[in-house]
Amino acid sequence: MADPSRRSSRRGAGDSLGLPPQNRVNVLMPAAAPPATSLGACLEGLRRQWEGDGQLAGLWQAWPRIAGSQLAPHCRPLNLQGGVLTVGAAPGPWLQALQYNRHQLLGALRGAGFSVRDLRFRQHHVEASPPPGSEVEAEVWARHPSRIDVHGLADCPACSRPAPTGEMALWGHCGFCRRSDLADQGIDGSPIC
Hints:
13% strand, 5 strands
């Protein structure tokens, strides 16, 4: 028969506090995982956070719509701090166009849900990249070598993995092999072009 004094020394922390068994906490068990959410709900949450107050990333995405098709390719938001948006524009007439359209731009920003209280403009050399959603971007994407819906899919002659035939026509093998070849040559293979 077990000694009653030994039984009392084996009590848990909850027993010494006089808690009933259902109120005891097992500290060795991990916390319960939060309930699963759908991918759509996660992406929507990220989008809301991205476009939230003071988020320059959301402003970048909305910029072509806010600034308009004529002005947007020649200027871009650079900094958003304390409600003051700094916009960089190509020198010359584009900087003047921004200053002339200051009030309309400020109204468009506020109408799009961005809490911008003031605008500042500065000279900035904008790269000649097509704005998101433009026709130029659509044309580039339409003929991109990695599109299997346009070019089809076949096995790479170097690694025998399935790959877009557009990549193999361009480089003789798939994009992964291309990147590996560039790395072997000491070239950073990040942009596969």
